[in-house]
Amino acid sequence: MTRPVTPGQPPGLLTRWGAALDPDDVLPEHPRPQLARDSHLNLNGRWEYAITGPGQDPPGENGTYDGDIIVPFSPESPLSGVGRTLLPHQTLSYRRTLTLPDGFRPAGDPGARVLLHFGAVDQTCSVHLNGTAVGGHTGGYLPFTLDITHALRPGPNTLTVQVQDDTDTGQHARGKQKLDRGGIWYTPQSGIWQTVWAECVPATHITRLTLTPRLDDSSVDITVHAGTGGGPARIAVHDGGHIIAETDAVPGRPVRLPLPGARLWTPEDPHLYDVTATLGTDHVRGYFGMRSYTTGPDHDGVPRLHLNGRPYFHAGILDQGYWPDGMYTAPSDEAMIHDIATMKRLGFTMLRKHIKIEPLRWYHHCDRLGILVWQDMVNGGGPYHPLVITAPAVTPLRLNDRHHRWFGRADAAGRARFLAETRETIEHLRNIVSIAVWVPFNEGWGQFDAAAVTAEIAALDPTRTIDHASGWHDQGAGDLRSLHVYFRRFRLPRRRRGDARVLVLSEYGGYNHRVDGHTHNDKDFGYKRHATAARLGAAFTRLHAQQIVPAIPRGLSATVYTQLSDVEDELNGLLTYDREVLKLPAGLVRAVNARLRLEPPARGSPHQR
Question: How high is the pLDDT of residue 473?
């Protein structure tokens, strides 16, 4: 489906959800499902925007703006209604009126605070309310919260945001954005790209929950985090609408609630427990799942990924989270659900979220629908050397990543920023039930000191496994030995002496097939081209039957096929970029994925559980 040309809105490929978008009701769902309050004011929709160059003053509170923009879509995206690229050294300004609804601030609580939340703003921003600076943020992939109470006035308020974005000309995290886009590098995007919202909280309120399932004694550890003051918090665990455990808790101190006979979370049975916490007049809702992620030997002594203490094969697909109309931003909640549910229906048990941090609702849908997630950190650093990032695809090159300059990581401040954002990412996503694996580096893009980074991640979160260097430049660390194979036949590598890590094929395939009328442009990037769907299906089946399935009993424990959908020049998705065409029969993909599993011990075996 293509967009009709309208003033201020460029033509482009549309999804069905983008075509149905109501600019006055954009992504209205609560954006934080694991810490939800009834107080929720969505600020998505129509804002004003302006782009100014060096030496030009941003329009601020009272200046003239260029036109309207639909938030939270980046100005580069069709759904924003703008279609302009923010260049380095330019400033993107936003303005809107903020009026709090009657009753939003309780009349009986003069100490109540109004918090302004941004899901993500790429890349550096400052925020003003009625001309008063209320805060800012650097880092294009993580949320931030500002207390705007002191700057509010009765009636209409003027909210402005100024944004700068270096894209790939600086050291900041940028993912696969590139000003000179093409091939595996995509159109840059900038500005607000996740939901903006406000909530009202008491002066003493819950800031976050830490939810840690413990399968060893069928319990859950819960920590209520809050500011100073206030008494004990009341915590309750609910199942099926009934309270099954409750206790008081001192904020900042974990409490353990026993859950005898707890129902475990798996992709096949994604059972979730609800949790509520009350501190004074503050009341929040969340949820958790009882699951564990570890590694260990199977019944033949082969290292495997374990789910809930048992070997479990991760049949995954690469999910880059790009949309032709919203770019980084899915056009609706239903669109996010479609991708997850479609891959699950095709028999995949895992999504590798590639070089992007999604809105929390995406993870929520993975939790409740039941699919594992491998979460990449977002790469940054300086320019990448072709020898480092492309030669290993065809040659057995393995470099020591302590040579920072080779990897575009000579800048010490850039390395420190990556480490800080890694810590923030882990804390931000700590409670997500479905995240099984952290992936700090991919194919050498901005990689540095991967063994040390992995050790820090393991200390921050010992409940998950780590793929320390996905693809190549293996430093011998982490829980996984991770391979990417595109240009040669996959053969099981010889196990290195003393290496007890689990073997995974974390990218492979990438077979492409063009479906005219459903492409971004006339480019045709992929690893093996197939002129017809029938040839694609035959090649897909043959690849798995001849190379992948035979490797599983010999040690292969996870696979990540490239990829979920086409993305710009790349036509190697199972779905077209607009998600309208599944290129292969669903039954064929399900039949292939049904063979990607671990065989249980033979009946009567001493290893049988």
Answer: 97
Q: What is the pLDDT of residues 109-151, one digit of tens each?
A: 889 999 999 999 999 999 999 999 999 999 999 999 999 999 9
Distances (CA, A) of 72 to 39, 166, 202, 353, 452: 20, 19, 28, 20, 36
* CA–CA distance, 45 with 433 (Å, rounded to integer): 30
478-487 per-position pLDDT tens digit: 999 999 999 9
Phi-psi category of residue 544: left, alpha or beta, with phi > 0 → left and psi -120 to 50 → alpha: alpha
**Whole-angstrom Cα distance, residue 139 to residue 174?**
9
Helix orientation angle between 412-429 and 450-460, rounded to the nearest 10 degrees: 30
> Is the pTM for the entire model greater than 0.90?
yes
Say if CB 206 and CB 122 are below 8 A apart.
Answer: no
Give long-range contacts, CB 8 A cutoff, 24+ apart: 207-212.
208/35, 209/34, 209/35, 209/275, 209/277, 209/284, 209/286, 209/431, 210/254, 210/430, 210/431, 211/34, 211/275, 211/286, 211/288, 211/431, 212/254, 212/463
Mapped onto helix, strand or coil, the DSSP state of residue 315 is strand
Give me 16's structure tokens.
Answer: 């069905």
Token pair 């793929």 in the structure block, residue: 467
Other CB atoms within a 10 A radius of the CB of residue 132 amount to 14
How many other C-beta atoms are found inside a 10 Å radius of the C-beta of residue 555?
A: 18
Residues in the chain where the model's pLDDT stays below 50:
1-10, 605-609
362: number of Cβ within 10 Å? 23
Tokens of 322: 């790009």
